[in-house]
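User: Please predict structures.

Assistant: First:
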Amino acid sequence: MTFELNDIRSQFPALRQQTGRPTIFLDNPGGTQVAQPVLERMTAYLVEHNANHGGAFETSQQSDEVLDEAHAAMADFYNARRPEEIVFGNNMTTLTLHISRSLSRQWSPGDEIVVTRLDHDANITPWVLAAQDRGCRVTWVDFDPANGTLKLDEMEKALERKPRMLAVGYASNALGTINPLEKIIPMAHASGALVYIDAVQYAAHGSIDVQQLECDFLVSSSYKYC
């Protein structure tokens, strides 16, 4: 299937900014522009259905239906087992901060977690801060600068220590490396660790099947999909 570039560009009002010359945005990793159908859907919600959730009145019920549809759509996107597995938040960083604080309540002094030097800071610092607060050890897995891939031998050694959590990216935001999750996730589970996947840089480029991955958590930021 091929896409006509001009047809795609025409769906993004920001590319028609009146600068006197054609506009090109190159900040895709920091956030993409908003497509016209998205703007229309957002406007329709605010005009027709905007209300507090969980109410007995009509607009509240309509608002809940919109949310239910959104959860179902994202469940399809990730191939989750059910819409109830989907949680929305401000962005991946905020979600990770909240989840790290929630999970770390079960950690004890002396426990360990594993992070990698190939990951974005959003999938490192929240875990490191939570570990510091709980008196836990942080083990770092490095990558090979010659080819930009994680050192799986270091990963294996780190997991032998039976950590509570492994935080690892689907794809590197800096190098584009796609990590072999089909190897890493079973290794982590065999050690008893939960696996937290940062899929921000992968979600826009490849299909995601959380059931096939069998990860415990996977997060992305939809404002970077385009």
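Second:
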Amino acid sequence: MSTSTLVHGERNNLADLLLAVGPDAPTLCEGWTARDLAAHVVIREGRPDAAVGIVVAQLANWTSKVQAEAAARPYDELVATLRQGPPRWSPFSIAAVDAAANIVEFAVHAEDVRRAQPNWTPRADDPELNEVLYKRATKMGRVALRGVSLGVEIQRTDVPAAAFAIKTGSPIVTLTGSPLDLVMRLYGRTEVSVQVTGAADAVAIFNSADLSL
């Protein structure tokens, strides 16, 4: 499966979930409903002037204003905009950029929707998606763990593999789980099946760290 096909599938998966739960459903993104999450994805792709505020604190108020305006649109229309993809002039319309920036983004946000619902069930395993997610997990240490004074390694459970160090340091904790759950944990989500092992004080430090991305 090509990366273009994979990102298209993840885009549709997210859109399908958003429609299934409805605009007022909760998500794992604190303070956001499904409507807010849909608006976030739409402005990220289609409003670069506002999307900058997602990572630049000084522009966060402008981003919030534009996102609120997007969220005020009819919900079905908002999700349809997400599903159809970015405008042609957007950098995300370039297939390679879309795949690099959105496969993980959509997979994580789909779980933000799915896992916030009562009696949710895990998504079906996807070996090709697992490889993309695991590759991302191996490269996230510098940013996701910048405030963690520990060594961290990850151990995937979907296939036989050695543990991989994503951050050097001592003592070391090991995160064990599926590629999807590992990525979500490194993105700061705690509604995951990830086992954290190591010395008790190191595990406590890791579990109390703010990994929000």
